Amino acid sequence: MVTSTVKRAAPQPAEDEAAAVLTPAVFHILLALSDGNSHGYGIMQDVEAFTGGDIRLGPGTLYRSIQRMLVDGLIEELEIALHDESDDDRRRHYRLTKKGLEIAQREARRLADLVDVARQRNLLVKRVGSTRPPSPRKGGRR
């Protein structure tokens, strides 16, 4: 028997592989921003609304996730201030990048495929209507 003593570097995931499975918090933020630009507090409210209160992103989780998403190029910060806000006290507004939208779509398809399997295996029954309230967005912006 021959045993190799050569140390091999661990394979590095490709950029697309690293983003293939997102944390729930990041996916919820992408979902919130898929409806239009928003600020952090607006994202928190939207996630709570579209999950029926089941998911509440705390400020720490939200802003750590946002920082990671900015670095990864999934979202970008907008250089805008509302008419009654100065640059120092303005809320930071965010929007999806093209990459962020593509990653969100890929993850939504992955999750939809899993739901299909769960239905085939009788873990879920087909829903007639949604039990979630509609998104509180007005005109796609907050």
CATH class: Mainly Alpha
Q: What is the H-and-E element order?
A: HHEHHEEH
Number of helices: 5
Distance between the termini: 66 Å
Number of domains: 1
User: Which band does the percent of strand residues land in?
Assistant: 5-15%
Structural class category: mainly alpha
The general outline is globular
Fold-level CATH name: Arc Repressor Mutant, subunit A
Rg, please? 19 Å
Mean pLDDT score: 82
CATH superfamily: Winged helix-like DNA-binding domain superfamily/Winged helix DNA-binding domain
The strand line-up of the biggest sheet is 1-3-2
Describe the structure.
With 142 residues, the protein is mainly α. The protein has a single domain, classed as Orthogonal Bundle (Arc Repressor Mutant, subunit A), CATH 1.10.10.10. It is built from 5 helices and 3 strands. The protein has helices spanning 15-18, 24-33, 40-50, 59-72, 98-120, and strands at 38-39, 75-78, 93-96. A 3-stranded antiparallel beta sheet has the order 1-3-2. Helix 2 crosses helix 3. The protein is globular. Residues 138-142 have low confidence and may be disordered.
Provide a compact summary of the structure.
With 142 residues, the protein is mainly α. The protein is built from 5 helices and 3 strands, in the order ααβααββα.
